[in-house]
Amino acid sequence: MMNFDRKLRTRSRLLLALPAAALALSLAACGGASRPSQADVASGLTQYFESAGQGDIFDEKAADCFAGYLVDSELSNETLNYLANGEDKQANQSDKDLTTKILQDNMSECMGMEEE
């Protein structure tokens, strides 16, 4: 009888541990960080450019415009969180290349240099 109780307790513990393990694996698969909002990324971009002494050139309107393109892109949550924190940092080379492309492709529109 004692052996049966031990097996039952061990099985119960394993069953209780499965949801926690599944949650941990799902968080690891998505980088554990949620995707920041456009407003968060815009705030981080503004913070970065102000600290770089370019706040007069890169205003909040430009930051919001670029942030919209960045958040809607295939950039990883990790890279977007770096940007939202005011860091010029990307998770990998692919994200770095994509960030550069997005900024270059939308420079005229976001910086108010469109021809009318």
TrEMBL record:
Q: Per its UniProt entry, which superkingdom is the organism in?
A: Bacteria
Q: What residue range is the signal peptide?
A: 1-39
Write the record's keywords in alphabetical order, separated by commas. Signal
* Protein name as catalogued: Uncharacterized protein
